[in-house]
Structures are given as structure tokens and as C-alpha cells.
Design brief:
By secondary structure, the protein is α/β, with parallel strands linked by helices. It contains 16 helices and 6 strands. It has helices at residues 3-8, 21-24, 41-49, 80-83, 87-95, 110-115, 137-149, 156-159, 162-169, 185-195, 208-214, 219-231, 239-250, 254-268, 272-301, 319-325, and strands spanning 58-62, 68-74, 98-101, 199-202, 304-309, 329-332. A hairpin with a 5-residue loop joins strand 1 (58-62) and strand 2. Helix 12 packs across helix 15 (272-301) and helix 14 (254-268) runs antiparallel to helix 15. The longest helix has 30 residues, at 272-301.
């Protein structure tokens, strides 16, 4: 659990007037070709078309022994349309003996609860006298608005470690309105699994990204990470763009979402595409391999429902391809409303 969430629990976004309920509450998930500008939807579709396993959120995973598990690509959103899982997906969660998630945010002990308020992991030993090197000036301004809106003040980039600052940027501002009330889709899946009696398997420690960014030698990656996630705070975001993002996810076009994501950052940063690629080599490729290493023995036994962010599924280094390389048979389960490959 992020310390800011525990302390501030979704404060009024006085410095983020652009992130309104009107913007966030999409009336209807609908693809709007104009929403992709300045990118071309046709070019993005071509990029996605060259991507392996670009379509499909739900997959059946069969071990060499014949044991069956399932893989689901999530969207880290608390929007009711995203929380409303397909009936078949809920059924497989209810049947699972084990639900595997990127992290398990449920704290294991009172000591762990107390530790989240320890400022040692959040504040720099010595505050910077100027903004961190390498951050795009426009993006830095958006980050300051976000940290002020969360109660940390505009000076947070100088006071917080890169890992702590990243924690604040990982949550969509539109989730702030329901923080502490509605879970994200990942949280709802965990809740359904635990209600059904499944054990929870965290695929990595909850603080892995935080600690990785703060390790000596990872300063370059930390700058890329903050630039990419700060670029998502663009106040020019429109309701049409949010509606299109949701429509693409609900239709299972994850590869197209990934191509668009790269284009969005590329429109903000001079090296946007390169920054996204460098970040994804860790956030997706390296973590995908680690996820499989953690889950492989349980997948071999079967009865596992794996739920990870949808961007972890497509591509030659995505989970679908990596599981196949490990000897599993992975087959897409088409869902109502999803596009064909």
C-alpha cells in the first residue's frame, strides 16, 4: 500500500482541475478515431497487427500434465465497466485454488503495517536544491500538480526518492474519486478469489518497483520511468480518449492499446518511444520472466487464475509466448464483445 494512500486516501484534487468527474465518468466506451491524433489509427493498427498475441484478454493454460489454469489481462481501473467481469471469468476465479496477482497488497503483519509509515523509504537523505536531472520540464510540471493534489506538495520531486515518487504516479487520477470505496479490477479479482476460498500468490514483492528505482545504478531507469508515467498526466486528456481506451480494452485489443500508449508518450517526450521501450524492458519483459519463475510450479499443478496487467500478455516476450516456450499450451478464450485477431 502506498504511504500517500494510507495517509490521504484520495484528497480533493485542487491542483488537478483537469481530472474532473466529467472527464473520468465515461458515458459509453466508444472508439473515436479522432482521439488518436496526432497518431494515425491506421498506423497503430498496423503496428499492433505485427505483434504476437495482440488480441485477447482471457487464455486457457494447460500444463504438459494436462492440468488447467487460466490467464487474464487486467486494466488497473476502478470504473464500474471494468469491474464488471465477464461471467465466465468470474466462474473461473470462483473455481480457482490459487489466484496469482502482480502483488498482494494485504499486509501480512502489524509490523508491516507500521513499516509503511516509516519515512526512511520515502524521503531522500538530503533534499535536492533543484529538480532531479533528466526530467522533461513539462512533465515535471504535471508531476508537481499530481503530488500537490495528493497532499505531498509541489516540492515532492526534490524531497522524495524516485521510487517513492513513482508510487504516487502509478495510480490513475480518475481512481482518486473512489479510493477506499471501489477497488481496481485487480483488487476485485483478489476479493472474489479470497471469498471463494482461493489462496493468493503474489508474483513479486509489493515494493519491488519502488526499491528497484532507488537502487544505486538505476538512476537512468528512474528518470525514464518518471518521464513516462508523468507523461500520462497530460492535462490535455479528453473524454473521447478515455472512452477509446476503455473500448479497446473491453474489445480485447491489448496490442493496439500498447501501440497507442507508445505514441502518446512519444507525442510528449523527445525520446518518448525510446523511453517507453527502455521502461518496458523492465516493467514487462523482465517482470514477465520473473512472474513465470514464481508461478511455474503452481501452473504445472493447475487450478491457478493468473491476473496481471493486460500489457503483460502480448508480444514475443509477453506471458502468452513465454508460457508456450515453457511447454504450456496456451489458447485464447474469446469473450462476448471482443474483436477477432
Amino acid at each position: 500500500m502506498a504511504l500517500a494512500a494510507a495517509l490521504f486516501g484520495g484528497t480533493a484534487l485542487e491542483a488537478q482541475d483537469w481530472a474532473t468527474r466529467a472527464l473520468c465518468d465515461v458515458a459509453e466506451p466508444r472508439l473515436d478515431e479522432a482521439a488518436f491524433a496526432p497518431a494515425s489509427l491506421k498506423e497503430l493498427q498496423a503496428e499492433a497487427g505485427a505483434m504476437a498475441h495482440a488480441t485477447g484478454r482471457f487464455w486457457r493454460v494447460v500444463a504438459p500434465s494436462g492440468a488447467v489454469s487460466h490467464l487474464w489481462g487486467t486494466m488497473h481501473s476502478a470504473d464500474p465497466r471494468i469491474l464488471a467481469l465477464p461471467d465466465l471469468v468470474e466462474q473461473r476465479i470462483a473455481e480457482a485454488r490459487l489466484v496469482a496477482l502482480e502483488i498482494d497488497p494485504v499486509l501480512p503483519s502489524r509490523a508491516a503495517f507500521d513499516a509503511q509509515f516509516d519515512s526512511a523509504d520515502w524521503y531522500r537523505d538530503t533534499p535536492l536544491t533543484e529538480a532531479p536531472d533528466g526530467l522533461d520540464p513539462q512533465v515535471l510540471g504535471w508531476i508537481r500538480l499530481r503530488t500537490e493534489g495528493l497532499g505531498w506538495g509541489r516540492g515532492a520531486p526534490e524531497r522524495l526518492t524516485p521510487g517513492a515518487l513513482a508510487e504516487l504516479l502509478l495510480s490513475d487520477p480518475c481512481n482518486d474519486f473512489s479510493a477506499g470505496v471501489l477497488p481496481t479490477q485487480d483488487g476485485r479479482i483478489q476479493m472474489l478469489g479470497q471469498i471463494g476460498g482461493a489462496d493468493i500468490l503474489p508474483l513479486e514483492p509489493a515494493d519491488r518497483i519502488h526499491r528497484h528505482l532507488d537502487q544505486p545504478g538505476n538512476a537512468g531507469f528512474a528518470v525514464d520511468f518518471l518521464n513516462v508515467y508523468g507523461a500520462y498526466l497530460d492535462p490535455g486528456l479528453t473524454t473521447a480518449q478515455r472512452a477509446s481506451q476503455m473500448a479497446l480494452y473491453l474489445s480485447g485489443r491489448l496490442g493496439l492499446l500498447m501501440a497507442w500508449d507508445r505514441a502518446v508518450v512519444g507525442a510528449v517526450l523527445a525520446d518518448g518511444g525510446g523511453a517507453v521501450d527502455r521502461v518496458n524492458r523492465h516493467l514487462l519483459t523482465a517482470r514477465n520472466r520473473a512472474f513465470i519463475a514464481t508461478a511455474r510450479a503452481e501452473l504445472a499443478a493447475g487450478g491457478v487464475f493468473v491476473a496481471v496487467g493486460g500489457f503483460h500478455l502480448p508480444g514475443e516476450t509477453g506471458l502468452v509466448a513465454l508460457l508456450r516456450h515453457q511447454g504450456f499450451t496456451v489458447t485464447r478464450i474469446p469473450l462476448p464483445g471482443e474483436a477477432r485477431p
